[in-house]
C-alpha cells in the first residue's frame, strides 16, 4: 500500500490542488478547474484517484493534480513527513544526503514512468491500430485517423526520447544523472502532442459511437487480450498521451526542487521545466480555442442574412460583446449589437419582431483599426453631442470610420479594456505560434450547420429551406455554450431580452398562421 493511501486510511485529510482544467467525458469522472482543491479519498490506483470535489465524488486523473506536500497553506501534516517517520532521516531537509536521495527517487520515477508509457504506446500501435487495419470492412482510414490521430508519430518520437534519457541516466548514482538536456533537445518535438490533444474529444466521440455496437466492443476487447494488455479500456489507453504531456512539468518541478544550484544539471532542468510548462500551456490554450471555435460557429449560423467570409477565417475567440450606438457620417445613428473577436468586430441589428434574433450588418478589421477615447461634449463634424464615446479610425490613413457610444461610463471602460485585450491576444498568439488549421475551422462550421438543419428537420422542416419562424427554437438549442472568456450574462442579455407579450398585429397573424399550418 502506498504511503499516500496509508495516510488516507489512517483518517487524515489529504488534499490535492488542480493544476489543469479537467473536462469530463464520462459520468464517473470528476470535473474541476485549475486551482480547485480536491479531497483525495482513494489513491490505490496510480493513474486514477477517487476524490470529492465541490458537489460530488468521482474518479479523476492523478496527473492533473498536485498533492499538497510541505506547503505553507496546508494545515495538515505532510505526507512526506509520514514517510520520514517510517524511515527516519535527518530532520534537516536541506541536507545534501536527503536531497541526493530525493533526487534519486524523482529521476527513477521519470525513467520508470517513461518505460511504462512506451509500452502503452506500443500496445496501442501493435495491439489496436495494426489489428484495425486488417479489417477494412470495419474501419476506414479516416475513421482510424479520427480515433488514433497521430499517436504513431508520438510513439516514434517517444522511443527516440527514451533513448536519450537512457544515455544520460546514471545507474550507479542516479542523483548525478543529467536528464534536463534531453527535454531541451527534444523541445520542439513535444509540439506533436498538440494535434493529439486537440482531436482527442472527437476521438472519444467516435469511439463511443462504435462501442454502441457489440461487434466493435468485442473486437477491441479481443485486441486487448491478444496483445496481453493490462485491464484498461481502449478509451483509457487513448487518454494516456494527454495525461503524459501534462505530467512532464510536474515531474520536472519535483526534479528542480531537489537539484541544488551546484549540480551540473541545474540550469538545464530549470530551462526544461519552463519549456515543458510552455508546451502544456500551449496545448491547453489550443484545446480551449478549439472548444471556442465550435461555439463561434454555432453563433454564426444563428445570425440571419450572414454575408462574406466566416468569422473563423480570421478569429478563434470571442473577447467581449454588448450594445452600443453607432454614429457614422452626417450624424446618422444606429443601435447595434457588437461582438469583438480577435482580429475583427462584428455588428448586428436586432430583429424588429423578435429581439432575440440578430441580423448581420457588417464588420471591421481590427488589424487596421485604431480605437480612441473621446471626451464628452459636442462634435461639430458629426453635429451631435457625445457621451461615453469611442472613435474608430483607420490605423494607417487615420480616416474616420465611426463613433461608438456606450450607455454608461463603466461600459465604455469595459470596451476600452476589451479592445486592449484583443490587441494583446493577437500579439500573444503570434508569439506562441497559436494557429487553428483551416480544416478544423471548416469542420466547425459544417458541424454547426448540420446541427442547425437537424433541429429544423426534427420540427418538420426541410434542411435546405430556412423556416420563416426559426425563432421558435429555444435559446439553449441555438446557443450551445458560451466561451469561458466572456461573462454569460453579457451574451444572454443580447440574445434573450426580458420577455413581453408582442402586440404587433403582423406578428400575431404570422404566429397563428404558422401553428395552424
From TrEMBL:
Span list, region Disordered: 75-103
PANTHER family membership: RHO GUANINE NUCLEOTIDE EXCHANGE FACTOR 4, SPERMATOGENESIS-ASSOCIATED 13
Subcellular locations according to the entry: Cytoplasm
Predominant subcellular localization, coarse grouping: cytoplasm
MF (Gene Ontology): guanyl-nucleotide exchange factor activity
Limits of the SH3 domain: 11-70
PROSITE patterns: DH_2, PH_DOMAIN, SH3
Domain DH: 102-286
Organism whose genome encodes this protein: Neogobius melanostomus (round goby)
Record bears the keyword ATP-binding: no
InterPro entries found in the cross-reference section: DBL_dom_sf, DH_dom, PH-like_dom_sf, PH_domain, SH3-like_dom_sf, SH3_domain, SOS1_NGEF_PH
Highest taxon, organism lineage: Eukaryota
Ranges of compositional bias, category Basic and acidic residues: 86-102
Annotated keywords: Cytoplasm, Guanine-nucleotide releasing factor, SH3 domain
Entry's Gene Ontology cellular component terms: cytoplasm
Chain ranges of the PH domain: 317-424
Protein name per UniProt: Spermatogenesis associated 13
One Pfam family this sequence matches: RhoGEF
Amino acid at each position: 500500500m502506498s504511503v499516500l493511501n496509508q495516510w488516507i486510511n489512517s483518517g487524515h485529510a489529504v488534499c490535492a490542488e488542480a493544476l489543469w482544467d479537467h473536462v469530463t467525458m464520462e459520468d464517473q469522472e470528476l470535473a474541476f478547474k485549475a486551482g480547485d482543491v480536491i479531497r483525495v479519498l482513494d489513491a490505490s490506483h496510480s493513474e486514477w484517484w477517487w476524490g470529492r470535489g465541490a458537489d460530488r465524488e468521482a474518479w479523476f486523473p492523478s496527473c492533473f493534480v498536485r498533492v499538497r506536500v510541505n506547503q505553507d497553506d496546508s494545515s495538515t501534516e505532510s505526507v512526506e513527513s509520514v514517510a520520514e517517520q517510517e524511515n527516519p532521516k535527518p530532520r534537516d531537509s536541506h541536507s545534501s544526503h536527503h536531497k541526493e536521495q530525493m533526487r534519486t527517487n524523482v529521476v527513477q520515477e521519470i525513467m520508470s514512468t517513461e518505460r511504462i508509457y512506451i509500452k502503452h504506446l506500443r500496445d496501442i500501435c501493435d495491439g489496436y491500430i495494426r489489428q484495425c487495419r486488417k479489417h477494412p470492412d470495419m474501419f476506414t482510414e479516416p475513421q482510424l485517423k479520427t480515433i488514433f490521430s497521430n499517436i504513431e508519430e508520438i510513439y516514434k518520437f517517444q522511443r527516440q526520447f527514451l533513448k536519450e534519457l537512457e544515455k544520460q541516466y546514471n545507474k550507479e548514482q542516479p542523483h548525478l544523472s543529467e536528464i534536463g538536456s534531453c527535454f531541451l533537445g527534444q523541445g520542439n518535438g513535444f509540439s506533436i502532442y498538440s494535434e493529439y490533444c486537440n482531436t482527442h474529444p472527437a476521438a472519444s466521440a467516435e469511439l463511443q459511437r462504435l462501442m454502441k455496437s457489440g461487434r466493435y466492443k468485442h473486437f477491441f476487447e479481443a485486441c486487448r487480450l491478444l496483445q496481453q494488455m493490462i485491464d484498461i479500456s481502449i478509451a483509457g489507453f487513448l487518454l494516456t498521451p494527454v495525461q503524459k504531456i501534462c505530467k512532464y512539468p510536474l515531474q520536472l518541478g519535483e526534479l528542480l526542487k531537489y537539484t541544488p544550484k551546484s549540480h551540473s544539471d541545474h540550469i538545464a532542468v530549470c530551462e526544461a521545466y519552463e519549456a515543458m510548462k510552455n508546451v502544456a500551456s500551449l496545448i491547453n490554450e489550443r484545446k480551449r480555442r478549439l472548444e471556442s471555435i465550435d461555439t463561434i460557429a454555432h453563433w454564426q449560423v444563428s445570425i440571419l442574412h450572414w454575408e462574406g467570409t466566416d468569422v473563423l477565417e480570421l478569429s478563434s475567440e470571442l473577447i467581449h460583446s454588448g450594445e452600443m450606438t453607432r454614429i457614422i457620417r452626417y450624424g446618422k445613428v444606429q443601435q447595434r449589437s457588437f461582438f469583438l473577436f480577435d482580429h475583427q468586430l462584428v455588428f448586428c441589428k436586432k430583429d424588429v419582431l423578435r429581439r432575440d434574433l440578430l441580423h448581420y450588418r457588417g464588420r471591421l478589421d481590427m488589424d487596421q483599426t485604431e480605437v480612441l477615447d473621446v471626451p464628452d461634449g459636442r462634435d461639430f463634424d458629426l453635429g451631435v453631442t457625445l457621451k461615453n464615446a469611442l472613435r474608430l479610425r483607420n490605423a494607417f490613413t487615420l480616416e474616420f470610420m465611426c463613433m461608438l457610444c456606450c450607455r454608461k461610463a463603466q461600459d465604455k471602460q469595459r470596451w476600452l479594456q476589451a479592445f486592449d485585450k484583443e490587441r494583446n491576444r493577437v500579439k500573444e498568439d503570434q508569439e506562441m505560434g497559436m494557429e487553428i488549421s483551416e480544416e478544423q475551422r471548416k469542420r466547425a462550421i459544417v458541424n454547426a450547420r448540420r446541427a442547425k438543419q437537424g433541429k429544423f428537420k426534427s420540427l418538420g422542416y426541410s434542411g435546405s429551406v430556412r423556416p420563416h419562424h426559426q425563432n421558435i427554437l429555444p435559446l439553449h438549442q441555438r446557443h450551445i455554450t458560451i466561451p469561458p472568456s466572456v461573462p454569460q450574462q453579457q451574451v444572454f442579455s443580447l440574445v434573450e431580452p426580458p420577455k413581453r407579450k408582442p402586440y404587433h398585429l403582423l406578428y400575431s397573424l404570422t404566429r397563428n398562421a404558422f401553428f395552424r399550418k
